[in-house]
């Protein structure tokens, strides 16, 4: 009998749920059994604000080290948590199972109906800046912790609303608490939001072939374009950068934005082109945004 594949995952409920979905799909497609290996990352332990942790990949590096050591065969991450910098020892072998990419408001009211001065929990500069453009009169409160902890602050009376990814809420079965899903023209999601990433060691040609069955080609092109924007802007997952692409099988439509933290000034641009030119589309769009001052807007909030 073939030994089960060892799948590394963070231990949060969302991470294990997402990893479980990938494991189930892999077993369906290949007949291979999968064993789950729970791993604690620096991002799980540190209580620092994510924007202050310095550098990207706080949720990812430990899992990558274990892939390189051979302790695990593959790892599953939220694609939006992956750093854009390429590590040649690691292969992004599949981009899979993209859920609704949009951001959601968890509250008893829609954003427009919250009372002036209401407290909205989110630590993401991207979300704060875009929400300020819609409701400049609300208080945006930085929060951390997993989704259930964040939502719990509403019942505890600390917050009136929290903003989270619809994808995570659906996967946790908490989407019944959503009062509003933001359209992408209101709040542009983070690059890669809603999609899962499967990584393995670049040395393992056997696994690259086996795990490749998990890849969804349209998700691959969309997230390639979105992440190319982020990479060309030299920004990480804590930057005030939104990007969303959709691939109809021929044409890729891509929109990206950089928003100043005051929510007033922003650069937003769209483009479209052949799906196989995803990387160039993203890179060219970022260059056009920089020409319109996107770099200056990002620089302002770096420190
Ligand atoms: N940065 C944390 C993170 N990484 C992925 C998700 C949700 C799932 C996803 O976007 O795929 C979340 C929480 C959130 O933003 O609500």
Could you characterize what this model shows?
By secondary structure, the chain is of the alpha/beta class. It has three domains: 1-97 and 195-215, D-Maltodextrin-Binding Protein, domain 2, CATH 3.40.190; 103-181, Periplasmic binding protein-like II (D-Maltodextrin-Binding Protein, domain 2, 3-Layer(aba) Sandwich), CATH 3.40.190.10; 217-303, 2-Layer Sandwich (Double Stranded RNA Binding Domain), CATH 3.30.160. Helix content is 34%, strand content 25%. The protein has ten helices and 13 strands. It has helices at residues 13-30, 42-45, 61-69, 125-134, 147-155, 166-171, 205-211, 217-232, 278-291, 294-302, and strands at 5-10, 34-39, 74-78, 90-96, 103-107, 119-121, 139-141, 161-165, 178-181, 196-201, 241-247, 251-259, 266-274. The strands form three sheets. Strands 2-1-3-10-4 form a five-stranded mixed sheet, sandwiched between helices. Strands 7-6-8-5-9 form a five-stranded mixed sheet, with helices on both faces. The longest helix is centred in the first third of the chain and has 18 residues, at 13-30. The structure holds ligand PBG. Ligand PBG is lined by residues 78, 80-81, 147, 164-165, 167-168, 193-194. Belongs to the HMBS family. One of its GO terms (molecular function) is hydroxymethylbilane synthase activity. InterPro entries: HemC (IPR000860), Porphobilin_deaminase_cofac_BS (IPR022419), Porphobilin_deaminase_N (IPR022417), Porphobilinogen_deaminase_C (IPR022418), Porphobilinogen_deaminase_C_sf (IPR036803).
